[in-house]
Every structure is written in structure tokens, then in C-alpha cells.
Amino acid sequence: MGALAAENVVYGREFSHILCDLDDCLYRIEVIPQSVAQNIKRYMVDKLGVPEAEVHELSRELYHGYGTTMCGLLTHGYQLDVDDWHAAVHDSLEYDKLLHEQPTTRQVLARCNLQKHLLTNADYRHAVKCLKRLGISDCFQDVFCYENVQELGQQAGIITAERPVLCKPSKHVYQLVMERIGATASNTIFIDDSPRNIAAAHELGIFTVLVSDSAQHVPGADLVVRHFDELPAVLPQLFAPVNTAAEPHADEVLAGVPIRVMAA
């Protein structure tokens, strides 16, 4: 084990990759999930004909049962255009007004010794806008979002008529992404704000960090922090000292937002 590897050993495990969620994990702006929830319900009523009196309970049940409301709708046979759905859910968000650069978060990412990969259920356009506004577009080796996760699932034969969409907390998502980046459960850290996403990753043997205001123990979470920026305090072995942290270089990531969309 080399000197750098030794620095990346925590709890007897040597880590090389981080998978990190986006919304409510790298940033937390309460009005955004509130607006998204309202946009989802409006779409279900206006475009899918769900009765107003039933939409709240149905959207809640589908979200908790399938990972995302859209995944649940498609699984139950609702006909919807995915691009139209994503536009209706996210395009009205005031990104320029709500999201701003987060220099501390950028520094934490720059100090981290591991390969960093974003893993979100959101669509590409939303991920791009958020990363750009937060000032961290160049901090990740890869961005795995709705579009390329579906491609991975299709290539693996996991997406079928019975399972038309693949998203967290499906264990297939973590397995396919780790295979793609050359990681294993034993050398991967997963960071998310969702206890169910955390639990699914933990069952695969992935080291998990839950980002939660409660900062209370949750089954499946190896660590709990209130904010992403607290990671160097709880996992100091994985971060370079502040005065030696290097900013990401343009030649270390793909042009623009570092997203790899796999060819069919």
C-alpha cells in the first residue's frame, strides 16, 4: 500500500471513489424541492388526468415506492413524455436567483483525494444548471444522471417493459455505475440525503454518509453529517490540508460539465 493509499484508509478500508448525490446533498434550498413537488402534482393533474383530490397521496406513494414519482407513473403504465416531464418539473425553477457559488463546497471537493462522481436521479439539464450555478461543474470526473443511467440499464438488459425506468434506490444503479467507473463496493463512499438510498447502498457493502439536518443515526448510514462541507471533519484521512488543496484543472475533466453519456 503506497503513501497516498494509506491516507485513504478509514475504518480499515481503503477508498478510491466517491459517489455523491446533488439536490439537498451538495446544496439545500428549501424552496426548490417544494417547487418541484408542486410542479409534479400540477403535471399529474393537467397532463395525466389525475384527480386533484388524489394527486397528493398518489405522488407520495409513487415516490416512496419507486424512488421517483416519474418512475412510479411509468411503471404503472401512465403515458408521459420524459423530456416534457423534466421540462415541466424543472424549467420554472429560478436557478439564477436561488443558487449561488459555494466556495467552501468547492474547496472540500478540491481537497478530497478520491475520484468524485455525481449520481443523481435528476435529468441532465437540471444537473448542468445546478453545478454551474454552484461553481463546481469541473469538480467531478463523471456525472451520472437520468439519461445515462437509463443507457446503462438498457445495455445491461435491466430496463424492460416491467421495469421501464431505473433510478436510486435500485441496487442496480449503484452496481452499474461502479462497474462503469471501475469501482467496487469495498472502495466506494456514497453520500446522499435520502435514508432509503443510503440503506440500499449500504446493503451492497458501500460505505455510506447521510446528509441530514437531524444528524441522528439512521439504519444503513455509517456516518451522518448535517452538511456536505462537514466531511473533512469526520473523514480527515480523505482530504488534503487546506493550504495544499489544488483546484481542479480543465484537462482533468471533460469539456463543460463532465458527463459521460454511453453510446448504445
Automatic annotation (TrEMBL):
<dbReference type="InterPro" id="IPR010237">
    <property type="entry name" value="Pyr-5-nucltdase"/>
</dbReference>
<dbReference type="InterPro" id="IPR036412">
    <property type="entry name" value="HAD-like_sf"/>
</dbReference>
<dbReference type="Pfam" id="PF00702">
    <property type="entry name" value="Hydrolase"/>
</dbReference>
<protein>
    <recommendedName>
        <fullName>Pyrimidine 5-nucleotidase</fullName>
    </recommendedName>
</protein>
<dbReference type="InterPro" id="IPR006439">
    <property type="entry name" value="HAD-SF_hydro_IA"/>
</dbReference>
<dbReference type="InterPro" id="IPR023214">
    <property type="entry name" value="HAD_sf"/>
</dbReference>
